[in-house]
Every structure is written in structure tokens, then in C-alpha cells.
Amino acid sequence: MMDKDVIIVGGGAAGFFAAINIAEQNPQLKVAILERGKEVLGKVKVSGGGRCNVTHAEFIPQELVKYYPRGEKELLGPFHQFMTGDTMAWFEERGVALKIEDDGRMFPVSDSSQTIIDCFLFEAKKHKVEILTNHAVKVIRKLDNAWQIETNNGNFKSEQLLIATGSSPKIWTILESLGHRISQPVPSLFTFNIKDKRLKDIPGVVAQNVEVKVLGTDLYSEGPLLVTHWGLSAPAILKLSAFGALELAQRDYKFDVEVNFVKQSTTNVLDHLKQVKLDSAKKTVFKFPQFELPKRLWQQLVLASEMTEDTRWGDINKNQLETLAGQLSRAVFKVDGKSTFKEEFVTAGGVDLKEINFKTFESKLLKNLYLAGEVINIDAVTGGFNFQNAWTGAFIAAKAISSK
Predict the structure, then answer these.
(1) For residues 188 and 242, is the Cβ–Cβ distance under 8 A?
(2) Which candidate, 277, 356, 278, 337, places its Cα nearest to that of 313?
(3) Residue 326: which residues within 8 A CB-CB, separation 6 or more?
(4) Which residues does residue 206 pair with via DSSP β-bridges, in sequence order?
């Protein structure tokens, strides 16, 4: 049995961030990372389309917490300890410059997740963090004042243990056996599967600023909307999927959404269309898009309003005009299922938040057991927020561990 001062289970973002900070703050501690796979930092590699969306340019804790459907209240204190600005400084001090994009997302200037991976591997080596791959944890036991960890490749003993495995059903089962309560995991970030004539031929079209409601609920979001081969995606949809994760799971992902493509009332839209009818009577509706909508989307909504490609504005009847106003401001689509990004899979669920001391990220039930990242019941909308939760939890846990 190998003795270590600190064992970290999980060779992902939170695990590496914690290990490096522990070893840096207290070089006397022997720190080891146990990773079940052949490689470490796999999720970091594919995140942000291979660019790694490190964090988000929201620098006010009270505003940042609003992006977390689960964890909003609990993260307020931690974000006062380690925030997005601290994340930027941490990476820049280690030679990784970050840039802010127009939508607030932050990436390495290199636009490559490998930059983040190389930074972690370099810092881990520099601070003598032992990285052990192909070490799947099978059993965790508390014996006297030490932790015993059995893996498929050897057994370990350590005074302090940090779990940073992300969404791992196996680890959740082990934590449950140790007395922790696990909130039932369900997918959190997913796109909506929709088969609809209006969308069938226009994958790739983006409407920049829409409003989306899930009918029969209070769920609402706004932002860009992307038409895909399987339905609807982009931030407007992903935000709904995060905040509605539990409710939409209960509905078995079968529900109706209402989309306002122009963010105006039906009355205002109708008034605008009536004016266009007067001003542009000889032009064809199909070829004369309004409200700065993408042309292909506009054309599908026109065809869905009982018009043809040849219908002129001057020839539109009252019913067609009202139907088009409705398609633009309250188009209803039937959702039947979901699609998840397998590489960037995010889960709502995990260790119950009431069982964690958020001043240290230590378990309230088990001394010297720490938890960081998605292993606990915290998740966020897309845009770098899930990584920020990982950095914050890992940093605070590392500070507590290294000071013992």
C-alpha cells in the first residue's frame, strides 16, 4: 500500500487545479492524482470545440451566480474567495494569456485547449505531483484518521482525500455507501429534437436574438438560436435545458416550445407587416425579409403562412398577414427528445449541497474528505461557467488541505 499525504481522485480540470495549488502552497505534501483512464484532462481537450472555454467575463459574484441553476446560493461565498479575475490571473502568471470574446466567453489566446493541458502538465511536474493513469477507484474506506483507496492497479493510503471526478455514477455510488446523499443525476445541457417542415431544409441558420418559452411552464430564455439537422440549439436553448433540467426530464423530453423570432408583440409585428404591404405592394413576400431575419428562415415562415414564393405583398389577405405575424412572434414547435454533446456532457445531480461546507469544500459528514467540480450537485449554463465552478471549488479545497 502506497502512502500519500493527499490523494485526488479524478484527472480532470478540478483535480489538476487542486493538485497544483496544494503542492504549490505546501511543497512538503506528497500529492497524487488517480485517473481511471489512459489519459488525463480529456474533457478539457474537447471543451469549447477544442479551444477550451476557460471561464466567462462576469466579474461580479452576485451576477455570476445567476448562471447556475443548481448552486446559485451556495457559490456566492466561494466566488468572493476565488473569482473569474483570479482565474485569469492564475493562468496568466503561468504563461497562459486569455482573451475575451464578444459574448463574454474566455479562451486561451492560442485558441487551443492544448495550451491549458500543457500548462497543467508542466505545473504538475514542476511541483512533483504524481499522475497515475489506469487507476480506477473501486473502494474507499475511512480507517481511523486515514483514507484507504483501492484501485484496479494498487492500493493507497492518505490523510486527505479530494474527489473531483465530475459526473461519475460509480463514484457517486461509493460516496453514497459512505453516507452521502446523491441528488438523482439528469442531463443538464442538451439540444431539442424537433421534426418540423419549417426547420427541415435550413440547418445552420442562426437567429441572433430570440425569446423561447416552454409552454405550460415558467421556463423562459433569450439569445441566439441555431437550427440544426435534429432541431434547435445554441444559447437560447441550452439555457432552457439547464434551468429546466429536472422539469423537462419529468416530461420525458416531450413538450412544446414557443419561439418569438423578433422579440416583439404580435400586435407590433402585424402593424409593421401592414405598413410593408402598403409600401411594397409589388414586391414578393418570399424575397423581401423583414426584422433582419435570416433569409432562409424568413422564407420558411412565409411558406408556413399559406403563401407561395410568388405571393406579392399587395395580394396578402388578412388571414395570411395574421398567420405570418404569429409565425414570427409565437411559432410553436413540438419537441420530442434531446441530443447531448457527448464530449461536453454536463449533468444536474451529485452530492447534496447541504452536506458540503462551502467555506472549505469539505464534507460535513466525513472529516478530510473534499469535493470539487461536477461531482457535487452544481451545474451551469454553457459559456465557461462550469469550468469556473471547478476552478473555484478546487482552489478553496486546495487552500484548506494545504494549510492542515
Answers:
(1) yes
(2) 277
(3) 266
(4) 226
Question: Helices 13-25 and 385-402 meet at what angle, rounded to 10?
Answer: 30
> Can you list the domains of the chain with their CATH numbers?
2-187+347-402 (3.50.50.60), 190-340 (no CATH)
DSSP structure string for 69-82:
TBTHHHHHHHHHHS
| pLDDT at residue 345 in the model | 65
SS3 223: strand
Q: How far is CA 368 from the centre of its chain?
A: 29
Q: For position 172, what pLDDT does the model report?
A: 97
Whether the per-residue pLDDT at 344 is higher than 90: the answer is no
Cell of 74: 451556495
Percent of all residues in the chain with a pLDDT value above 90, rounded to a whole number: 96
β-bridge mates for residue 379, sequence order: 70
How does DSSP classify residue 229? S
The model's pTM is 0.90
Alpha carbons 85 and 55: distance in angstroms, whole number = 9
Express each pLDDT in 244-292 by its tens digit. 999 999 999 999 999 999 999 999 999 999 999 999 999 999 999 999 9
User: Average pLDDT of 106-132?
Assistant: 98
- 348 beta partners: 186
